[in-house]
Write a structure and sequence with these properties.
Strand order of the largest sheet of chain A: 1-11-10-9-12-13
Structural class of chain A: alpha/beta
Oligomer: homodimer
Mean pLDDT of chain A: 95
Shape of chain A: globular
CATH superfamily of the largest domain in chain A: Nitrogenase molybdenum iron protein domain
CATH class of the largest domain in chain A: Alpha Beta
Low-confidence stretches of chain A: none
Largest interface: A-B, 130 and 129 residues
Largest sheet of chain A: 6 strands, parallel
CATH architecture of the largest domain in chain A: 3-Layer(aba) Sandwich
Distance between the termini of chain A: 82 Å
């Protein structure tokens, strides 16, 4: 189970907190060849790879209205109601992220403002596999819709019968996805990056995926297509003091561990009692989990760090920059103000990560692998360009002219100074 | 001079608007070897490359307080005053970009909020060469300072005497740069990406540079260090109707052209008179420019597109996604609301690009090469992580529990459902 490290020296932190490094060099050639084939041959290449990788021959990739209607009927009313409430919460939280336009007159007659404009065309990738990740459709689709993106394309791999899971289709129509395609893997990323006869080219691609999909996103990013953020295995860090509930902490660690054998699970606590009780609870709760074997593998790679003071824990947590941080401490809110490297922060004993994963309203597409030091999770910001505008009156131009001329000349840029000068001269003539 | 294309068919747009493609494959090996050397050998490698590429042997890279004081005394009072006013305008425009924290209760007892937290350590790169680009220090340093970044490192190549230009140092101290290093090129990017004995490692690197610097930024981005945005040659597009002033339009095109022979200059107009008058004005104004030869080269690669209706021009301008867009039309504001792909937009006859380049308050670090389709220019957003927070009361957890459980189970994630369930059971017991 979890390895317990007691009172490590600060110099040891870097090696204790080190993430596994995945080298994708071996994948690049394969992934590039699929990208190139789709770029050259379009739909024909997608048909070929779908047969090869997904094991199904498809004539059409675009999901029809009829397919969507059939799927909607298959989703239980309970699940529908839950998804609808989750969408309402996500929308309520995200709609607030659209900044209002405010005109700022920096000098008399010099008006500047900034407006969020939706990226015209975006692509969302949703992996297939054992579970249908419809929650990620909500987390990407809702902010895309709020941002005002005109074309919101979704790609997800078909199952062996050539279909998408009904919950995927229900979620997609609910959040206003404009086109849904039964295309998976690298071929999906290629289709959205380059466009094909049936799939429109998009300007930014979002969503999780396996190592091949991640590699494809990296490669197309180098070609100028924007991507949401770099990817890595999912992680949770729990910072717990003696007031934490070991049953809850164990449940949170397990919910992260079930994502996969490479999931990162970290417990930081100043209480040996909590550390020991959590270990016991992990064993108890583990028994009833369907993904038990996966969970054990993840836990075996996991660490509990015992620290002397919670302040040291705060520093350690900042050094780690977890994708999800749960603060199960008495003064969670005070501590949260001292955290500057983390994805979302869950405060107190009644804020488990899974609430944020599905329904509280915050986004669950987040920076892993320490990227929280520089990257934010997905928000409406991710789906807009913030365009600036400026409008000067002739008086405004006169007010600012000498500043621009002096600076431009000091940078050796004559023509920049001249663009102001010709307008000033003209103004003086009038 | 500019090539005039009259009334092109829509199918021709893509080829007319095509940017030059720069293939950096040949650079990768050289750049990677410099990155690797700095990563392995630290300051020793930087000393070696500074001698080799900048032609100067330096014992210390860190600029001292004494050097800064000496430099400040060398900057003219006029230029100082101009820079100080520019900083005031930039600060006034950018400070408004810090979104206030607002707690949103998405369901009773489910509180969510979002806070902007400055990226702890950032690095700014400012190229050397013929002109000291101190204006870029303002454009990066002011938002970094507003964001609350704790460490703001600046690297810029030393001249042959081992110094930085006084205006660089004046601007740097003015906007709160915490450490200034006399390091240039790929070795500067490497120093900030990996850290050395004297240069701290940063989490995100900003700033323009030549093809080697650009390549280095791409490579370190793949290693998980964030960068501001992809780079490309600078561009301006002017959309002009018959009310435009050809003197002003020519001056604006020239101010872009003087950036370099690879600068992109595009005029789109529905007035043949304007097209012809601008050509004449270009020739007139060109004569007095110090960078005349560079300008001629850039203009020879430039295009004027004559269109039938301004609406067609709007569509064309959106297809191009210019780094800078000047709307020299009677109803500039109405047109600007129909533009969704552009960096900043300059409205009307008295809003030249050079005003935004230096002093109006908007940022001048912008997406070139069509990246404005997906990327924004630099703002305070670029220097913060937007961290989300959530705090549920036990009642809040109960209100949302069944939604989370239903969705988690439908995704096959037992332990996610369990993390909510154990809390609910506990609550019922109490």
């Amino acid at each position: 189970m979890m390895q317990l490290i007691k009172f490590p020296e600060k110099q040891q932190w870097a090696s204790i907190l080190k993430r596994p490094v995945f080298d994708n060099t071996a994948l690049v050639e394969t992934v590039q060849s699929v990208l190139d084939a789709v770029k050259m041959e379009g739909d024909a290449a997608i048909k070929k790879y779908t047969a090869q990788f997904d094991g199904v021959e498809l004539k059409e990739f675009l999901v029809t209205e009829a397919e969507i209607a059939t799927a909607i009927a298959l989703v239980s009313d309970d699940l529908k109601a839950a998804i609808i409430q989750a969408v309402a919460n996500i929308r309520q939280f995200h709609i607030n992220q659209l900044a209002p336009v405010e005109v700022i007159e920096t000098m008399p007659g010099v008006k500047c403002w900034r407006k969020s404009v939706g990226i015209e065309k975006v692509g969302l990738y949703i992996p297939g596999g054992s579970a249908p990740l419809f929650s990620t459709i909500l987390m990407l689709g809702v902010p895309a819709q709020i941002a005002g993106c005109k074309e919101i394309v979704l790609c997800s791999p078909p199952n062996k019968s050539g279909n998408l899971h009904p919950a995927i289709l229900f979620a997609a129509q609910l959040v206003g996805i404009t086109k849904i395609y039964k295309i998976g893997g690298v071929q999906a990323i290629a289709a959205m990056a380059y466009g094909t006869e049936t799939v429109p080219q998009v300007y930014k691609i979002f969503g999780p995926g396996n190592q091949y999909v991640t590699c494809a996103k990296q490669l197309i990013q180098q070609q100028g297509i924007a991507i949401d953020m770099p990817a890595g295995p999912s992680e949770v860090c729990v910072l717990a003091d003696a007031t934490a509930n070991p049953v809850f902490v164990a449940a949170d660690l397990l919910s992260q561990a079930e994502h996969g054998a490479d999931s990162q699970v970290l417990l930081v606590t100043d209480s040996l009692t909590i550390a020991n009780q959590v270990q016991i609870e992990l064993t108890n709760q583990l028994e009833n989990l369907s993904r038990k074997e996966l969970v054990i593998k993840a836990l075996n790679n996991s660490t509990c760090i015992l620290i002397k003071y919670i302040n040291e824990g705060i520093e350690l947590v900042n050094a780690y920059a977890a994708e999800h941080l749960i603060i199960a401490c008495e003064n969670a809110e005070v501590i949260s103000n001292q955290i500057y490297n983390a994805g979302p922060i869950f405060l107190g004993n009644y804020s488990p990560e899974s609430v944020g994963d599905y329904a509280s309203g915050t986004n669950h597409t987040l920076p892993t692998n320490g990227y929280a030091k520089a990257y934010s999770g997905i928000s409406v910001d991710s789906f807009v360009k913030k365009i600036t505008y400026q409008q000067l009156s002739s008086a405004g131009l006169n007010n600012i002219a000498s500043i621009v001329e002096l600076m431009a000349e000091a940078e050796g840029l004559d023509a920049h100074a001249n663009a102001v000068r010709v307008r000033r001269i003209n103004e003086l003539k009038n």
